[in-house]
Every structure is written in structure tokens, then in C-alpha cells.
Amino acid sequence: MSSNLPPMTRRAVLTSAGTAVAAGGLTACGAPPSPEPAAPPAATTTAPPGPDAEVVAAVADVPVGSGVFLEGKRLVVTQPTAGDFHAFIAICTHQGCNITDVEDDLIVCRCHGSKFALDGVPVDGPAKKPLKSRPAEARGTDLVVG
Asked: Is 45 exposed, middle or buried (0-12, 13-18, 19+ CB in 10 A)?
């Protein structure tokens, strides 16, 4: 069987193959997915403190629906609901300032005005990441942090 088409040069074959691969790659990629609305970052979940955890406060010293700053430990401990304890390193995730205040149901950084919920998630201000958490739980009347 003979063809009336002129023979293809090597350059023509390679150019055609390259174009086909590029077109296939673009088709396979398709349009980028629509961006999802940004959700606030979740606080990290931590495992319970180990057997060598340190007693940092009395359970009764941490008010339900609020928290306390433990200066000597550089920790913030909170109790959003009865028996649900959280502990955070008292350093703001915005620029590393020390956190020294808990006001009602907010952990407050005075440097730039960041505010965090009692679960460590940022709710206001320039901080975008949750506070670094530490494992915490009640053991009898003691609050322990690992």
C-alpha cells in the first residue's frame, strides 16, 4: 500500500509528539478546584499526660468557662466546660510574645491584641495559628500537665 504523503522528518515527528504530550498534560490537570472558604485552624489534640506528669494547679483553681495563667510554669490552663481541661504554652503564635492574661472566656496576648478561645484557637487579632497545647487532665483534686 503506498501513500501520497511526503515522508515525515525526525523534527516533525518529535514536534508532533511533544505537542501531543503537552496538550494531554494540560487536559489532565484541568482547572484548579474552587477554593474552600478558610476555616479557623483547629487546636491540636493531645494525648493524656503520662504517669510522670506534673501537678500545676488545683482543679478548683481553674474556673469553669475561663482559665488561669500560671506564671511560674509559663502555661495557660483552661476549663471551657466542667471537667474539660486544656493547657497551652503561654507564647502567642503571632510573634512569640508572652501571654499573661485570661479574661472571662478569652486567652489574651497584650502585644498585638490576639485573642484565643479557651481551646487555644485564635478568634481575633493577627494570630492565625492555635496555641501550642500540652496534655492536661484532672487527677483527683490536682490538675496535671504532661
From this structure: exposed
- C-alpha span between 76 and 69 (Å, rounded): 4
Tens of pLDDT, residue by residue over 109-134, are 999 999 999 999 999 999 999 999 99
From the list 49, 107, 51, 113, the residue with the least C-alpha distance to 77 is 107
Strand order in the sheet with 101-103: 101-103, 106-108, 115-116, 122-124
* Grid cell at residue 106: 478569652
Cα separation of 98 and 18, whole Å?
57
90 φ/ψ angles, rounded to the nearest 5 degrees? -80, 55
